Amino acid sequence: MVRLAERLAPLTRNVFADMDQAKAQAAAQGVDVIDLSLGSSDLPTRPEILAVIAEALQDTRTHGYLLFHGTREFRQAAATWYEQRYGVAVDPETEVLPLIGSQEGTAHLPLAVLNPGDYAILLDPGYPSHAGGVALAGGQMHLLRLRAEQGFLPDFGQVPNEVLQRARLLVLSYPHNPTAAVADLAVMEAAVDFCRRYDLVLCHDFPYADLVFDETLPPSVLQADREKRVSIEFFSLSKSYNMGGFRLGYAIGNRELILALRRVKAVVDFNQYAGILRAGAQALLGDQTGVREMVNTFRERRDAFVAAMHRIGWQVPVPQATMYVWAPLPLAWADRSLEFCQHLVQKTGVAASPGAGFGPGGEGYVRFALVHPPARLQEAVNRMASWLGLG
Ligand SMILES: Cc1ncc(COP(=O)(O)O)c(C=O)c1O
Question: Which pLDDT tens digit goes with each residue over 332-341?
Answer without folding.
Answer: 998 999 999 9
